Amino acid sequence: MKIFFHSYNGANRFYKNILAAYFVIAALTIGVGRVQAQSAGGETYQEPKPKPAPASSTPVSTHEADYMNQALQRVFRKAEAVTKVKDKLLAGYGFDQEGECLWGAFLKVGQQITLDTTLEAGRSYFFVGAGDDFVTNLDIIITDTSGHILGQDTEAGKEAGVLFKPKYNGGYKVLLRLKAGDRFGLCALACLKRPGGWLLNHAEFTQTANVFKTGVQSWWKSFKGGSFLHNGQWCLVMGVVQQGRTLTWSHTIPPGRLALTTVQDGRARDLDLYLVNANDEVVTSDTTGGSTPGFTYNSPGGGAYTWEIKAVSTTGPSLVGVALLELPR
To answer: Is-contact 264 219, C-beta < 8 A?
Structure first.
């Protein structure tokens, strides 16, 4: 993995050279590969024209859940590696303790997906992306809302990483692009921040991801088929919730039968899940008192929907995830 960093406010040339040298040492320490500094530039991002996907040379499993699990495990290992470097420049990075922190998507080769996010001045953020075993080149590009490039990692590699410190509070765009691979890839993007970061240990995250994979596969087995959303939307969103708080996310979903399934890290005792349409009406829900709610929904015309997951009871900050699955009609 490459790590690129955006220049810190007020940093002079000497400091930036020291910082660059530090990240070279850090990369060697944690085994994440080449490091380069990101210049201020002033480029404006131009969306590339999609290239035809190459023919597959490798048999593909019928269960995309296997590949999403590979992406989740890989992105977490890279994120965790950064937090283990014993230096004050990287100390304190972790997931946001209240909000979304990890996303997953199905991408074809040449396709990209955008995360619209709000970042705070005075905080540092580390975005890391990774894919399944078929992904060979992945890019991350950070822009402002006007498309000006503020940080990027577009060097060849199976993972990508950008360290970024915003100059102002407000909206930013993080683009995850599958540049090369075998037809398609299940890709994951994680955001760490400091101060105030929180991170599961590897064993806990591995168990959570494996439970998620098994749960998704059981849905598809019950309905004799299925897939993650293939419409260029995030099909998986994970975040940290405290008791009494709610995590929400909006999607544009296709017509047909969908399933919403959830996973949590063991700290959630009672979660409620709702699906809300564009008129702010709850169209279906699961409030039966379990820790992994889920349901199916037949969307006659598709459109904009928002899911909400509420932490009714937890034993502490809990990493929860919601995935949207397309089921056979």
So the answer is: no
Element spanning 214, H or E: helix 202-222
* pLDDT per residue as tens digits for the range 212-221: 898 888 888 8
- The fold for domain 2-41+62-199 equals Jelly Rolls (2.60.120)
Cis check: omega of the bond before 195, within 30 degrees of 0: yes
Give Cα 264 distance to the centre of its chain.
16
According to the CATH classification, is domain 205-326 in 1.25.40.10? no
- At 94-128, the pLDDT tens digits run 787 778 999 999 999 999 999 999 999 988 899 99
- Among 311, 232, 225, 220, residue whose Cα is nearest residue 261: 220
What are the domain boundaries of the chain? 2-41+62-199, 205-326
- Six-digit token string for 13: 């040339």
| 316 vs 271 pLDDT, higher one | 271
pTM for the full predicted model: 0.81
How far apart, in Å, are the Cα atoms of 9 and each of 15, 39, 124, 215? 11, 13, 11, 45
Q: What is the DSSP string of 124-138?
A: EEEEEEEE-TTEEEE
